[in-house]
Amino acid sequence: MTLLPLLKENSRTLKSLCASCGLPKTGAKSVLVSRLREAAQQFQPIPPSARILSIDLGLKNFAFSLLTPAPLPKTTKSKTKQKPLPSLSFADPAKPSALLTSPVHLHAWHRLDLTLPLDAAQSSSPLPPTPPARNRKSKKAEAEPEEDSTPTKSKRKPEPSTSTSTAFTPTTLASTTATLVQTVLLPLRPTHILIERQRFRTGGASAVLEWTVRVNQLEAMLHAAFAMAHFQAHSTEIEIDMAEGGKGKRNGVDGGGKVVVESVTPKVVAGYLFPSAGAKDEDELGDEEDTEEEESAADKKKRKKKATSGAAAAYKLLKKEKVNMLSEFLATENDGGGAGLVKADGKQAEEVVGLFLEAVERKRVGKRRAKRKEGEEENYAVEDMVSKMDDLSDSVLQGMVWLQWQRNLEGLIQERPELLEPVEE
């Protein structure tokens, strides 16, 4: 069997097929076909019991979510049988949600600051417990002493116990990563772990910022920590298939099953969600919060000025569109436009979803219109959530897009069974 039928397709069609499966879409037609064939032959179907841990990396904004595939609606199932692959003509870029058709259940949704001590309170709360922020005008807060610091009435974070100069040494960061993996991530019993691929430069700068190096270290240590399960095979007897750079049998999390660890490039995810947006590469622009600490006053002024430029404005718009898209997916009403694609499952997830949707609404109407009524207690967690929406939405959308890529590849294999046949030389 040859791949002649696919080679007869035009380049635009082959690029669309690659994009629909999360594959690079550059190269000659023969390269694109070979890429599709390799992906098809390595494909492993996603079982209904899959637990997808999606990680959006950052030291001050480490976000992760746990997703499981939800049953497809009857209407979606019937359409899938007729046409396994969604339309990839990108004729209507105003409706990117049409490219996501796989519903999911959201079981856990967190955002942690790894510059702070990683304790049980951080790993069990939807938001780290912190006291109210400074300069608040809440008369009630001034009149009454703080008795507790719950996630729904919190703002300021506790001071880190480790100095900045030693907080990110290899020894300290390795200990933080090991604790994070063993006490927070692996207890979620994931079967698939998606780690956001990190950039090497920020803002197109010629120099590599120290903060970028730190996040790259964290990325490498996470992969190493999951790969260390290989050395525990004698006790847990679980396989882990490292998608990049490893083929051997390694053991993974407790509870059994095969664990797949993959790197996901933010640019590819954004390109799938917004194929015609023309937004600036996230890898180049970087994360303002992560780079802010090492900037001088002059550099910070330049960055703020650059934020008004076309590229940075497009990046901010992309972030905003991601948050808006996820808020539609989280809506309870299923109006046929993508709403209800994500359903919270569990108290923690439901609480964070509620805060997320309230924060989206507050940001939409503005602070002035969102002021609390007289005598109404202010919800500091909602205000805190406003600054965390980007990272939280990225972690969920990354998992949803990756799952959709697997569904699309499965549909492509059904449409093109020749992808599984050996190629005649």
The helix fraction, in percent, is 40-55%
CATH arch. level architecture: 2-Layer Sandwich
Number of strands: 7
Question: What fraction of residues sit in β-strands?
Answer: 5-15%
Order of helices and strands: HHHEEHEHHHHEHHEEHHHHHEHHH
* Number of helical regions: 18
Could you say which structural class the secondary elements and strand pairing correspond to?
A: alpha/beta
- State the separation between the terminal residues, measured CA to CA: 10 Å
The radius of gyration computed from the alpha-carbon positions, rounded to a whole number of angstroms, is: 23 Å
Estimate the mean pLDDT confidence.
73
Write out the strand line-up for the largest beta sheet, numbering strands in chain order. 5-6-4-1-2-3-7
Low-confidence stretches: 76-97, 128-157, 247-256, 334-338
Description:
The structure is a single chain. This protein has about 425 residues and is α/β, with parallel strands linked by helices. Helix content is about 45%, strand content about 10%. It has 18 helices and seven strands. Strands 5-6-4-1-2-3-7 form a seven-stranded mixed β-sheet, sandwiched between helices. Strand 1 and strand 2 form a beta hairpin. It is globular, with a radius of gyration of 23 Å. The chain starts with a helix and ends in a 10-residue tail after the last helix. About 15% of the residues have low confidence.
Task: Give the helix/strand layout.
Layout: H1 4-7, H2 11-20, H3 29-42, E1 52-56, E2 62-69, H4 74-82, E3 104-112, H5 120-124, H6 139-143, H7 164-167, H8 170-185, E4 192-196, H9 210-227, H10 233-236, E5 240-242, E6 259-264, H11 266-273, H12 282-285, H13 288-291, H14 297-306, H15 310-330, E7 342-344, H16 347-365, H17 380-386, H18 389-415
Parallel strand pairs: 1-4, 3-7, 4-6, 5-6
Antiparallel strand pairs: 1-2, 2-3
